[in-house]
Design a protein that fits this description.
With about 300 residues, the chain is α+β, with helices and mostly antiparallel strands. It has two domains: about 20-250, 3-Layer(bab) Sandwich (Hsp33 domain); about 255-300, CBS domain Like, CATH 3.90.1280. The chain is about 35% helix and about 30% strand. It is built from ten helices and twelve strands. It has helices at about 1-10, 40-50, 55-75, 125-130, 160-170, 205-215, 220-235, 255-265, 270-275, 295-300; strands at about 20-30, 35-40, 80-90, 95-100, 105-110, 135-140, 145-150, 175-185, 185-195, 240-250, 280-285, 290-295. A ten-stranded mixed beta sheet has the order 7-6-3-4-5-10-1-2-9-8, with helices on both faces. The protein has a two-stranded antiparallel sheet with strand order 11-12. It is globular. The relative contact order is 0.19. It binds zinc ion (ZN).
């Protein structure tokens, strides 16, 4: 695995140029609803592999990744970059996800190898891992303006917290589904869907979605079974619907050797001395993707 990190870092931290998921956007119920749906199994699996995530950490980060990409797609103003932060007081620490207009995602959790015993019914205890705190959304708009808003975490399950955020901060009534299915060999399915009620919505359209959501079936299992199409069909059952756009998603980090060197250079000489490895090189690791960059002391220290 470390061999992989090194190979990645030689390429400047960029991920592979392959698609690892898909994002769809559309309307439904005679334009009573607008929706976004994402399948990002490959993205979350790549995050799991890069950060060596435990099952609970992979699920928490994957839910946040699904939420971030959906929030980004549904933003009214064209958003260059959206950062979702879930900052609770639980043992997992901070969860941070960033998504951009190209469909690149990256993210990390404070304690990637957190091991929490499952609940008595075998579920991963995401809410206990997250704890109480805030959910924050930071948006860099294409016109150069910046928006930031936050809400208190309602449940720590992430999906319901995003719904709460949309209600409080955006004044929109939405249903948010996010899910990750973990298996012994890694992430088997990951994704989610947000359905937003538009002004003047037909009440019967809302009732139909509510009835679909009331059925207790897992988002990630639906995706595992039939991908995005199955998720769309399940949530929007009985409604006319139109897919208006489709984009590819991938895990890709924007870090590079020069930028991390600048961060190293900002440290004091004493702090730098503490991150020198056995070979006398400085090693900096990107928090977002795990890529490691090595520098000789003379590259960092002022001449
Ligand atoms: Zn990186």
């Amino acid at each position: 695995m470390h061999g992989n990190f090194e190979r990645v870092s030689e390429k400047g931290g960029a991920g592979e140029e392959i698609d690892q998921g898909a994002l769809e956007y559309g309307v439904a119920g005679e334009v009573s609803l607008r929706w976004a749906a994402a399948e990002l199994t490959g993205v979350v699996e790549e995050a799991r592999r890069r950060h060596d995530l435990s099952p609970v950490a992979a699920v928490a980060l994957g839910r946040a990744m699904a939420g971030a990409v959906l929030l980004h797609r549904l933003a009214i103003k064209a958003t260059r970059r959206l950062t979702l932060t879930v900052a609770g007081d639980g043992p997992i620490g901070r969860i941070v996800v960033e998504v951009n207009q190209e469909g690149d995602l990256r993210g990390f959790v404070g304690e990637p190898r957190l091991d929490l015993p499952a609940s008595s019914d075998g579920r991963l205890r995401i809410a206990d891992a997250v704890g109480k705190g805030i959910l924050k959304v930071h948006r860099d708009i294409v016109d150069g303006s910046v928006y930031e808003s936050q809400v208190a975490l309602e449940t720590g399950e992430i999906g319901l917290d995003i719904a709460h955020f949309l209600e409080q901060s955006e004044q929109t009534e939405s249903a948010v589904l996010v899910g990750v299915l973990e298996g012994p060999e890694g992430v088997r399915a990951a994704g989610g869907m947000i359905v937003e009620v538009l002004p003047g919505a037909n009440p019967s359209a809302i009732e139909k979605v509510e009835a679909s959501l009331a059925l207790d079936s897992s988002v990630s299992r639906t995706i595992e079974r039939g991908g995005l199409e199955a998720l769309r069909d399940r949530v929007l059952a009985g409604l006319d619907r139109e897919v208006m756009s489709r984009h590819a998603l991938r895990f890709r980090c924007s870090c590079d050797r020069d930028r991390l060197r600048d961060q190293l250079a900002a440290l004091t000489a004493e702090d730098r001395a503490e991150i020198v490895d056995e070979a006398g090189e400085l090693v900096a690791e990107c928090a977002f993707c795990g890529a490691r960059y090595r520098y000789a002391e003379r590259e960092i220290a002022p001449a």
